[in-house]
From TrEMBL:
GO MF term (any one): metallopeptidase activity
Pfam families assigned to the protein according to its UniProt record, in alphabetical order: Peptidase_M90 (PF06167)
InterPro entries for this protein: MetalloPept_cat_dom_sf, MtfA_fam, MtfA_N
UniProt name for this protein: Zinc-dependent peptidase
Source organism superkingdom: Bacteria
Organism: Desulfuromonas soudanensis
Length: 266
């Protein structure tokens, strides 16, 4: 009964009118919106309405949470869902937005905790996806990434990719996949590309994928997701197999969209 009521409510939300002011935010602040076709834009707006309705949104650090902030974040998060079977990020309850870089305080061991690894020190972050918890984002980084995809850095794509990765209970760089064949190809391609990135990063070579992705498999998936949506033609050129498995997972072809935009095709 609960699922029936929830699904009915979601359908009602999806049918609501999308305010013209909100769409103007998408057209001016979310560069990717312009490369979608009309059905994709309609679906993105419907997904965005549900995410705005269902999640708890909080402005932190003195930030006044405006419609522009909420819509800009929600639409980018929903872009990742556009071709996926999904449940509107069921592992995200809250989205916390700060005005600028946040410093996560040093984690101190508990009184009875046995310390087997270095204690995490205070570090500045632009975003964080907490397992079984909130997504933390920094508005100035969100705005910059949304407007300038050519830079290949998008904190919303990055953190919500982590949340997709976590849907199976582990942040290991492998989100839930359709079947064993897709899993086998994913592991083969992503493992090879991850190890290649790590080797190049360790040698200090400049890499197309951000070297931050060499930290572990989870960061690799998040960084690769940023490039897949923001610089798809370049990713296709530098790592065609990686582009292919990401395309099969997300069920989208950003490179095709970018090519049509370059050639002036509708």
């Amino acid at each position: 009964m609960f699922h029936w009521l929830r699904d009915n409510h979601r359908e009602e939300v999806r049918r609501r009118s999308f305010p013209s002011e909100w769409e103007s935010f998408l057209r001016t602040s979310v560069a990717h919106y312009s490369v979608l076709d009309d059905p994709e834009r309609a679906e993105l707006r419907a997904l965005t309405l549900v995410l705005l309705e269902e999640k708890n949104w909080e402005g932190c650090g003195g930030l006044e949470l405006t419609d522009e902030i909420r819509v800009t974040i929600a639409a980018q998060a929903c872009l990742l869902l556009l071709g996926l079977p999904h449940d509107y990020y069921r592992n995200v309850e809250s989205i916390l937005v700060y005005p600028s870089t946040v410093v996560i305080p040093e984690r101190r061991p508990g009184v009875f905790e046995r310390v087997n690894a270095p204690v995490e020190t205070a570090i500045p972050i632009l975003g964080q996806a907490i397992a079984r918890g909130a997504v933390i984002l920094v508005w100035d980084a969100v705005k910059r990434g949304a407007r300038h995809p050519e830079q290949g850095h998008n904190v919303v794509y990055h953190e919500f990719a982590h949340k997709l990765d976590m849907l199976d209970g582990a942040a290991d760089g492998t989100p839930p996949l359709a079947d064993g064949d897709q899993l086998a190809e994913w592991v083969a391609v992503c493992s090879r590309e991850f190890l290649r990135l790590r080797e190049l990063a360790e040698k200090g070579h400049k890499t197309f994928l951000d070297a931050y992705g060499a930290r572990n498999e989870a960061e690799f998936f998040a960084v690769a997701t940023e490039e897949f949506f923001d610089r798809p033609l370049a990713l296709q050129k530098h790592a065609a197999d990686l582009y292919r498995v990401l395309g099969a997972y997300y069920r989208q072809d950003p490179a095709g969209r970018a090519s049509r935009l370059l050639t002036g095709e509708e």
